[in-house]
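Hi L.,

You mentioned the student needs an example of a multi-chain input paired with its predicted structure. This one should do, with 688 residues in total across all chains.
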Amino acid sequence: MQEDKTEQIIVAVDAMGGDNAPLEIVKGSVDAVNKSKSVKVVLIGQEDVIRPVLSQLPCPKGQIEIRNATEVISTEETPVMAVRKKKDSSIVVGERMVKNGEADAFVSAGSTGAVLAGGSLIVGRLKGVERTPLGALIPTAKGVAFLVDSGANMDCKTTYLVQFAKMGAIYMEHVMGIKNPRVALVNVGVEEEKGNALAKEAHQLLKDCRDINFIGNIEAREIPAGGADVVVCDGFVGNVVLKSYEGVSGVLISEIKKSLMGSLRTKIGGALIKPALKEMLKNFDTSEYGGAPMLGLNGLVVKTHGSAKAKEIRNSILQCVTFKEQRIKEKIQENLVSGSEDTK
Amino acid sequence: MQEDKTEQIIVAVDAMGGDNAPLEIVKGSVDAVNKSKSVKVVLIGQEDVIRPVLSQLPCPKGQIEIRNATEVISTEETPVMAVRKKKDSSIVVGERMVKNGEADAFVSAGSTGAVLAGGSLIVGRLKGVERTPLGALIPTAKGVAFLVDSGANMDCKTTYLVQFAKMGAIYMEHVMGIKNPRVALVNVGVEEEKGNALAKEAHQLLKDCRDINFIGNIEAREIPAGGADVVVCDGFVGNVVLKSYEGVSGVLISEIKKSLMGSLRTKIGGALIKPALKEMLKNFDTSEYGGAPMLGLNGLVVKTHGSAKAKEIRNSILQCVTFKEQRIKEKIQENLVSGSEDTK
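Structure written out for the whole complex:
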């Protein structure tokens, strides 16, 4: 059955989460099923809200259904508490479907904390996985890099980082199609004696991993330049990398736009370069790749940006198809169980 | 004497350090003394190398001299060892001058590690200062922010962060002239329960500091937007913030340039917007402000970029004048000694 690539893959989608729910979520889901015959989407949320939106969009019969869930978890709620209390929320219902095998994956633009908490509490970790990181695909001058952990685990042990590296490498190789991906550890210098205690120890363990292509430390400056395919760090540092990315590029682009509005001369110049600039910036648009997968779970959970529009939702759903077809879960399981003997 | 602002301030400058030594270093020093009557520069390094460069540049008599130092510490050397072994290097000689009171400050574009190691080992910490951070001025949409620690101390205790916050606030208020600067702690969310163990604890201590304007946590995304004046974190995270800044803006700008060379249309557009773009990017040029001061020492040590040109050297030297005139060292001493009772 694992070899049967024509098997239909069921993706549960949180229709209530994010800034643009339900419209963009439903649109993205419809786009996904129109794009791929092998996916079936279950939209989860308040049926009376979702139904009118869905009925307006043309889509193939039998590939989308709605599963009613009456409650909604907001981003203001304390994640663990919300997940425990709101049993009939779209996040809990969706993650329970993954747990029960009713769905292969769950996609949500809702509360990151609740999605992550539910991932651990409801879906559960694979045997041998110490912590489940959130991976994020980030644009670089050479394409895309996978930042893992991008924000799920704050205080990490070195062994967690080693597992993040292995899971990240599997993801990049088999979902993104990058052969023998270069794995690097975020640090303040390339020399192996550099860094804080965590980085120094992790460097030594990673050097001894025979099943990944560890290329050493990477300074944050080299991440956007495309210095590595898998960028490993704890979730605190990963969050800083990711948010710095968004912040710096956001400010620069807005300052450039402002400076183009300064005079007639720059307005004309701006009009001439606009299409090329737009094309260039598209390469720096993370929504092209879909959301951030939570790795090491007994199923797949993908968190998109809260501001996700149809394109990111569609791509996240299609990412789930590749994840399942490439048997990423099984590969992680096999690798970490055998790998854990490697490094001990 | 502390009130006498016409007193001459002596700045020792490492003429051998950095990618552009000695030419740009000497040029910057000459520019500084031409700009300010209250500064005297002592260029430190190999006299036979420095003298020919200096003799070609017009400068007022008596404001620049050379102090011969035969050895040079390279960036490849292990910092602590190099500082211990090379007693006659420009870094060691310069820092010893500060220690002995022969100079008020030392400016270097050389090995960061050696400059920092020498700062602690030779110049020494002020009484009550637990760790001496490296502050960095970083451009924001609203002006400039002070990132402290930007890379000197890897594994920090919460009490270090509190001192970084206090020293950073004094620097921003009295050197940069920002009244009641907003101090924020780098974290993964604004809520106080967010973050790793260090950030959670530091938040609580900072909340209780009555002598700084603590505005809470700041996400890395809000740093470039100008969300705080003093941005506090450990040196590992600070280095990631700083290098992400450089990396993302570097890649974006180079990609924009590339996209402008794509066609005749974009070339014309590019030519029209070039002056405005240049002006805008100047605001994102950290060399406008001078180098990174090491705070909490018994004297001032300023580390510029390794790639520093004359402008950054000049501004770093002038920064030393303000530092001395504003009695920053004394203010830090007074604040930390009284402040340490505050938080205990």
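You could point out the following to them. Chain B has a mean pLDDT of 92. Chain B touches chain A through 59 residues (CB under 8 Å).

Best wishes,
N.
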